């Protein structure tokens, strides 16, 4: 679906130039800058022979349209992938590639600090289908060799970790996994392909909740899954078999969001770093979990592999429990209390680590995850100070 992309977007040009021009060629549609939003189930064939041979570019709405192709080709240009599927949510971008590649009797290794619904899918549906699921330490690196079995099919990574922001040694893990014949998947939502390109580091399948920074406005759910050459065909065929295509209006909104993602991300990065480093000196904060801070235990690894940081990180309060965590959250006036991230507005959520088997801490107090939006930093700092005062009162 995204194989014959617009070359204009895939060269050596700067990232914002590529974001502005990747995906569609305006001259394919009378020069209109943006592609059409194609609402489609039926595609007509010129004759019975074309129908029998399926010998035309588009055959049915579930298998791709000019709108989904525009987004998929833009993502391919960013990821360096052979093909991209566009699915209805970030969670679907996790479940569909897993369903595409694991079978009954296979062993699946998942990082313990994974996004909770990924774990839930593995622990329920995949286990029911006969997949053996095992969780590993985010710091395992090449040590994953000790966990690999003859039936290990997929090593699932997510870096930095959901909520606790450990950085994984992706190249080391990929090397070991490939030696054993396993596939490496990565949920790369935090960094976006602007700040980390998984396929360049040995990952076979890169996953994004495009709901976050690509969409950018907290009003769309979408996911993308990008594969290297050797895994693209199986991914695409499974996608078609499952029928999990995304709606055209949502796909269009994400393509629209992509055009400004570079400038938005720069702002998120700058504000989040300013607030994270300021928080390190604040009373009531034991630790700030942000891999771009030199104090972060995985900072060197982050610096080696990533070329930027986005807008979410966590803080550890200096002691206390749920009472202090709730007092902090309830005192906030600008930060909303709500799930997801990557939108223009700041959000805060309590972190729960009760599902973890390895990466559980210890932490000095309760954790709170902050998504730093596009508001003014001084206003956000004042809001956080209110939260800290309430937590320490
Ligand atoms: C790391 C990560 N992956 C995937 C998802 C799922 O995205 P969606 O909300 O679009 O299902 C999320 C959502 O919070 C996430 O944080």
Automatic annotation (TrEMBL):
Its cofactor is pyridoxal 5'-phosphate. This is Cystathionine beta-lyase. Keywords: Lyase, Pyridoxal phosphate. Belongs to the trans-sulfuration enzymes family. It comes from Rhizobium loti. PANTHER family: CYSTATHIONINE BETA-LYASE-RELATED (PTHR43500:SF1). GO terms for molecular function: cysteine-S-conjugate beta-lyase activity; pyridoxal phosphate binding. The keyword Lyase applies. GO terms for biological process: L-cysteine catabolic process to pyruvate; transsulfuration. The lineage of its organism: Bacteria, Pseudomonadati, Pseudomonadota, Alphaproteobacteria, Hyphomicrobiales. It catalyses: L,L-cystathionine + H2O = L-homocysteine + pyruvate + NH4(+).
């Amino acid at each position: 679906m995204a194989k014959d992309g617009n070359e204009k977007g895939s060269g050596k040009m700067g990232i914002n130039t590529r974001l502005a021009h990747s995906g569609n060629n305006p001259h394919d549609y009378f020069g209109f800058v943006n592609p059409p939003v194609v609402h489609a189930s039926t595609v007509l064939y010129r004759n019975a022979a074309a129908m029998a041979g399926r010998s035309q570019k588009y055959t049915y709405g579930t298998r791709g349209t000019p709108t989904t192709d525009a987004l998929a080709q833009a993502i391919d240009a960013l990821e360096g992938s052979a093909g991209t599927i566009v699915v209805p949510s970030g969670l679907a971008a996790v479940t569909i590639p897993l369903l595409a590649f694991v079978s009954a009797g296979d062993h699946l290794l998942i990082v313990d600090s994974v996004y909770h619904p990924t774990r839930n899918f593995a622990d329920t549906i995949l286990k029911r289908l006969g997949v053996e699921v095992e969780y590993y330490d985010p710091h395992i690196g090449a040590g994953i060799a000790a966990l690999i079995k003859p039936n290990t099919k997929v090593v699932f990574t997510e870096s930095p970790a959901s909520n606790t922001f450990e950085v994984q040694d992706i190249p080391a893990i990929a090397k070991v996994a490939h030696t054993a014949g396993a596939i490496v998947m990565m949920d790369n939502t935090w960094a976006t392909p602007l700040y980390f390109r998984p396929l360049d580091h040995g990952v076979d399948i890169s996953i994004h909740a495009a709901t976050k920074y690509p969409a950018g406005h907290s009003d769309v759910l979408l996911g993308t899954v990008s594969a290297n050459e050797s895994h693209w065909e199986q991914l695409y065929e499974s996608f078609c078999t499952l029928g999990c295509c995304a709606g055209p209006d949502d796909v269009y909104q994400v393509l629209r969001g992509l055009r400004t993602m570079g400038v938005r991300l720069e702002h998120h990065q700058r504000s989040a770093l300013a607030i994270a480093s300021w928080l390190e000196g604040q009373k009531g904060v034991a630790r700030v979990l942000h891999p771009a801070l030199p104090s972060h235990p995985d900072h060197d690894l982050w610096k080696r592999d990533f070329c930027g940081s986005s807008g979410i990180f966590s803080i550890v309060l200096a002691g206390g429990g749920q009472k202090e965590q709730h007092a902090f959250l309830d005192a906030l006036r600008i930060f909303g209390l709500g799930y997801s991230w990557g939108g223009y507005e700041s959000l805060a959520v309590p972190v729960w680590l009760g599902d973890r088997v390895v990466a559980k801490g210890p932490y000095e107090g309760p954790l709170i995850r902050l998504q730093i939006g596009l508001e003014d930093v001084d206003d956000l700092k004042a809001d956080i100070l209110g939260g800290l005062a309430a937590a320490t009162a």
